[in-house]
Amino acid sequence: MGDERIIPVEEPLQKKTIKGKPPFEPLIGQSPPMKRIYELIDKVADTDSTILIEGESGTGKEVVAKTIHFKSLRGDKPFIPINCGAIPEALLESELFGHEKGAFTGATSFRIGRFELAHGGTLFLDEIGEMPFPLQVKLLRVLQEREFERVGGTRSIHVDVRVIAASNQNMEEAVTEKRFRKDLFYRLNVIPVALPPLRERKEDIPLLIAHFIQKFNEKRQAKLEGLSPDAEKILMNYSWPGNIRELENLMERLITFQQDGLIGASDLPDKLRRPQENPLPLQFEFPDGGVQFSELVLEFENRLIQHAMLKANDVKKTAARLLNLKRTTLVQKLKRRENLTLQ
Ligand SMILES: Nc1ncnc2c1ncn2[C@@H]1O[C@H](COP(=O)(O)OP(=O)(O)OP(=O)(O)O)[C@@H](O)[C@H]1O
Ligand SMILES: [Mg+2]
Fold it and tell me: How far, in Å, are 136, 147, 183, 195, 223 from residue 141 at the CA level?
């Protein structure tokens, strides 16, 4: 078994912290997609199942992984993260599995890998989609047999590790494009967790703003009260490509420049105030019987108008400019929409 040789080389994240607070950020949000995530976390925490978290950058994959770990029975054991995309290919194998003395040039002493460090706890394989193809085979074997050898070693080492993987790319697509092994994907994807982008749960934005204001007020000993209604509206209309991290960074920056009162619309960066490009992606499969052309065109027109009105904060003149329509034409179209919805 070799457990006695498991010597931590770095201080792993532990359940207890100085102030008795958990060592991870709380998950904020009461939108239906977030409620589903909380339910899922509660259901899976105490199982040892492998989990694959997918979500755009900044959607909270790492916080979710930590939440699952600390809620699990392994919560007082180490949570060991490794970013598969940030470590050069040549080093990743020994980072994961460790190496014996003399295993390669520069290996002057034996080194323990992250799998061994995570013994009893959870290994968080971040950016799993970036894992080089040859290493994917080795990882598959560990997941199947919970056993591996250190680089340059011959002895099999057994570990008891729960694996949580995360990716900001679509892993199914990576499999189709043959960048990721199908068998490994199925091994990892026992429980898929899909984190919604912030633009799909905009009702959480005010809660998140309040949370970050409180957090940074405490940190900076500031007394910022909040955002003016028009500033909040701008944040609600923005599409947040960097998701929660982008919102968090913005709040931190705003508090640096203003420590009390309300943040106004003019205090916000230009990028947020400018209407954003949104190509309104068209994604659908043609059904067997074909599509209803006129209905779909009308639906697209409606979505386009709705989108422009949202961006224009309901100012028809601005929306008309976004659409390159005469204001009167837009008004006519809006009237027709109203009539349709009233019927
Ligand atoms: N639901 C949430 N409530 C509060 N804070 C959150 C939430 N989700 C994420 N955060 C915060 O947003 C930041 C980004 O989260 P995290 O690092 O988990 O994202 P990620 O999905 O791993 O991003 P990346 O793909 O860029 O690594 C962190 O500071 C985290 O605490
Ligand atoms: Mg991350």
Answer: 9, 7, 11, 28, 54
